[in-house]
Design brief:
alpha/beta; nine-stranded mixed β-sheet; globular
Length: 341
C-alpha cells in the first residue's frame, strides 16, 4: 500500500427491512453501516491503497461498531474524532420493478453534524497524503460542517494534495440555492469533479440538452457541454459524469463520461439487474480515484470506474466489496456472469 487517500464525511447506521419488505411490513431490520465518503474509503482499501476515513462519532458502542465496520476492510480510522451524542441513521426500503427505493433519514444532531472546526487538525491529518475526497452531502449537514470542509480544502490545497468532490445533491438535506452557494465556494479548490445526470443541474443550473431522467432518456452528447461548462467555471482538471438510464427499480443501463479539459471519453454501457443500488455512485468515485492514482489512460480510467460501480450494484450493503482483478476482468469485456470454477 502506497498512495494515501483521506475521505471526510458521515458514516451512518443503515437499517433495512429484509429483502423487499416495505417499511410498513417490516418486523425486523438488518443493521449495517455506510455513507458516501466511507464507502469510497472501503473501495480504495479493497483495491490495496492506504485509505483513511475522517469523521466524528460518539464514544459509545454504536459509534465503535461503525469504526469496526471500517477497520474490517483495512480503512485507517486513527483520525476519527470521538464525541457528540449520536450516530446518524438512515432507513432503506428497497424498490422493485416500478416501485422506487425509499430512504428516510434520522441524522439530525449526529456527532458529525454538531462537530466544530477545531475538532480536526487537518495539517496533521494530511501528513503524507496524496488525495482528499468529500461529497456534497457533508457540507449539507450544516454551516459548521461546510466550514470544516472549507478548512480541509484549504489545508489540502496548501499541501498540493489532489482534491475530488462528488456533487451528490440531496434535496432532503438542503435547497438548490443553498447547495449552489456553498458548493460554488468549495469547488474553487476541487481538481476532480464527479457528478450524475441531475447534480450539475440541481447545484449549478447547468443542464444537458435532450435529457429527461424520469422518462429514462439520457442524451450523452449533451453531457459534453455540461462537463465543459463545469470545468470552465471552476477550473477542474477532470469532470466525470455517470449516466444512468432507469428502466425500472431493478433494471438500469449504466455508463459514464470523462472530460479531461480537451476530450470526452465515453465508457461502454452495461445493462444491470440490481441487487442494491445504494453506494453505486460512491463505488464509481472509488474506482475513478484508484484509476487516476494508477496513472491509467483516460479511456481506461472511465472504463475501470464504470465497471467497478456496475459490480457494486450486485452487492448487498453500502460497501463495494470487489477486487482490482474482478473490476479489470469486467472492464476488459467479460460480462457473462458465468460461474468461475
Amino acid at each position: 500500500m502506497s498512495e494515501k487517500v483521506i475521505t471526510f464525511g458521515e458514516i451512518m447506521l443503515r437499517l433495512a427491512p429484509e429483502g423487499y419488505y416495505r417499511f410498513v411490513q417490516a418486523e425486523s431490520y438488518g443493521a449495517t453501516y455506510g455513507g458516501g465518503e466511507a464507502n469510497v474509503a472501503v473501495s480504495l482499501a479493497n483495491y490495496g491503497l492506504d485509505a483513511g476515513f475522517v469523521t466524528k462519532l460518539p464514544a459509545h458502542e454504536i459509534g465503535q461498531a461503525g469504526i469496526n465496520a471500517l477497520r474490517r476492510f483495512g480503512v485507517d480510522t486513527s483520525n476519527i474524532v470521538r464525541g457528540g451524542d449520536r450516530v446518524g441513521i438512515y432507513f432503506l426500503e428497497k424498490g422493485a420493478s416500478q416501485r422506487p427505493s425509499k430512504v428516510i433519514y434520522d441524522r439530525a444532531g449526529s456527532s458529525i453534524a454538531t462537530a466544530k472546526p477545531e475538532d480536526f487538525d487537518w495539517n496533521s491529518i494530511f501528513e503524507g497524503v496524496e488525495w482528499f475526497h468529500f461529497t456534497g452531502i457533508t457540507p449539507a449537514l450544516g454551516d459548521n460542517v461546510a466550514a470544516i470542509c472549507l478548512d480541509a480544502c484549504k489545508a489540502a490545497k496548501e499541501k498540493g494534495i489532489t482534491i475530488s468532490c462528488d456533487l451528490n445533491y440531496r434535496n432532503k438535506l438542503w435547497s438548490k440555492e443553498k447547495a449552489g452557494q456553498v458548493m460554488g465556494e468549495l469547488c474553487q479548490y476541487v481538481d476532480v469533479c464527479i457528478s450524475n445526470e441531475e447534480d450539475a443541474s440541481d447545484v449549478f443550473g447547468i443542464k444537458a440538452a435532450g435529457t429527461d431522467v424520469t422518462a429514462g432518456q439520457v442524451n450523452h452528447e449533451g453531457y459534453r457541454d455540461v462537463a465543459k461548462q463545469l470545468a470552465d467555471r471552476f477550473g477542474f482538471s477532470k469532470v466525470a459524469i455517470t449516466l444512468r438510464t432507469s428502466i425500472s427499480a431493478n433494471d438500469n443501463k449504466w455508463a459514464a463520461m470523462l472530460y479531461d479539459g480537451n476530450e470526452c471519453y465515453f465508457s461502454k454501457q452495461y445493462t444491470m439487474h440490481i441487487v442494491d443500488r445504494v453506494g453505486g455512485g460512491d463505488s464509481f468515485g472509488g474506482g475513478l480515484i484508484y484509476a487516476c492514482l494508477q496513472n491509467m489512460e483516460p479511456q481506461e480510467i472511465i472504463e475501470f470506474a464504470v465497471a467497478a460501480s456496475c459490480l457494486k450494484h450486485s452487492i448487498e450493503g453500502d460497501f463495494n466489496q470487489v477486487s482490482v482483478d474482478e473490476v479489470k476482468k469486467l472492464a476488459g469485456g467479460d460480462a457473462s456472469g458465468r460461474v468461475q470454477r
